[in-house]
Specification:
This protein has 405 residues and is mostly helical. It is 71% helix and 0% strand.
Length: 405
């Protein structure tokens, strides 16, 4: 059975169970779901570390390194700009009704500090990068990149280390593959916990904003991405959408970018035909920087917050502010892999000030949906960029549909 079918069946069973389970089991279910998220991420950090290291080394030997990373950051920035604009324009054309302003009752979230993030990337003790918690992947990616760049300064001396990295990359790839193959079972619990959290929301209150977001997500996933591929010469762009169903479902029902990275890594090689040398860097970096899907959802959501806190229409300068800061915030979400779009709304409220610091609470009831929509597009965007770069570098291998995993 295809992996996406396992994930889909697990999700559907979980959704059905979650709709009928009593509210008293919510706490237990959330605890089990949190444990299963850890299982899903189990092999991701070592997989990224060794795969990025050996992948960067291969790119450097082939004299592709600078070109690939330049394309990666170019596409991350372009995707963030385009998707944020799509989200903002959709709200301007179809402005949703205002929602009731919430009274603060929760402990406030803590903003992401760019300086603290840089300090964690470059700590005083390099080895501390390898023993930190599992909530920030970027320090591991940077260290792996630097090691990969230095793996061939003397082929004779570094060959054993390069082989060591290559071997461990393949070992953790197989371990991650085992987790991915069995994760459909875990999706039953994760989807149940997810739908029980969503069920607390009043759908009537948020109906319009959710419709706008659903249309935006569908437009990007089934229109913008395939359309761009078609214009770039891919004859059957919807085969790419089909190949991305597995990682997309993982992102949708877990909302966790790092867990989805593990699923995407397996599909990248075996369904998308993207080699490890490119896929390892693209998937890891895009999980940390340039989360275009979460930025789009955050921009739409923050526009609703602005409308709810004011009786006048949003001005042109405010729209520009939302576009600019949504774009910037997409590059600092790597420290919150499981909160994505909702945390981005919080950051926008904090930066905007003027009484909106607690505005994100307006959307607390639908936070799981915001995170899910954003993560779904984040994952597909990462797959999309990897395919573009692999085609540019002429290293893409077309995989027949029947051979998709």
């Amino acid at each position: 059975m295809k992996i996406w079918m396992k994930l889909l069946f697990g999700s559907l069973i979980g959704l059905a169970l979650g709709l009928f389970l009593p509210a008293t089991v919510q706490g237990v279910l959330d605890s089990v779901a949190d444990l299963l998220l850890g299982v899903g991420r189990y092999a991701v950090f070592p997989l990224v570390f060794f795969s990025v290291g050996v992948g960067v080394s291969e790119l450097r030997k082939e004299k592709r390194l600078l070109r690939v990373y330049a394309s990666l950051f170019k596409y991350l920035a372009l995707a963030a700009v385009v998707l944020v604009l799509i989200g903002v324009v959709s709200v301007l054309i179809f402005p949703p009704e205002r929602v009731p302003i919430a009274v603060a009752s929760d402990k406030a979230l803590q903003p992401v500090s760019v300086l603290e993030g840089l300090q964690s990337v470059f700590p005083r003790n390099l080895f501390s990068v390898l023993v930190r918690g599992g909530e920030f992947l970027l320090p591991v990616v940077v260290l792996a990149f630097l090691i990969g760049v230095n793996l061939d300064f003397d082929t004779q001396l570094t060959r054993p280390i390069a082989q060591f990295f290559d071997s461990l990359s393949r070992i953790f790839y197989h371990l991650n593959s085992l987790v991915v193959e069995l994760f459909g079972i875990a999706m039953i619990v994760l989807a149940s916990a997810w739908v029980m959290r969503v069920a607390h929301a009043d759908p009537g209150t948020y109906r319009q904003i959710l419709i706008i977001l659903a249309v935006d997500v569908a437009l990007v996933a089934f229109g913008v991405f395939p359309g761009a591929l078609y214009l770039l010469g891919v004859k059957s762009p919807y085969r790419w959408v089909y190949a991305g169903l597995g990682p997309g479902l993982a992102g949708l029902f877990t909302g966790d970018q790092y867990l989805s990275l593990g699923v995407l890594t397996k599909h990248g090689k075996e369904s998308f035909g993207v080699p490890r040398s490119i896929g390892s860097s693209v998937y890891a970096v895009s999980a940390c920087l340039g989360r275009a899907g979460s930025a789009m959802v955050a921009a739409v959501s923050f526009m609703l917050v602005l409308r709810s806190y004011s009786q006048i229409e949003v001005s042109f300068l405010q729209v520009l502010w939302v576009v600019g800061f949504s774009f910037l915030i997409s590059f600092v979400l790597g420290a919150v892999p499981g909160m994505g779009a909702y945390f981005a709304v919080f950051m926008l409220c904090s930066l905007y000030g003027k009484g909106l610091q607690e505005g994100y609470l307006v959307l607390k009831a639908i936070a799981p949906l915001l995170v899910a929509f954003g993560a779904f597009i984040d994952v597909l965007g990462s797959a999309f960029i990897s395919l573009l770069i692999a085609r540019e570098e002429n290293v893409w291998t077309e995989v027949e549909t029947e051979n998709f995993i």
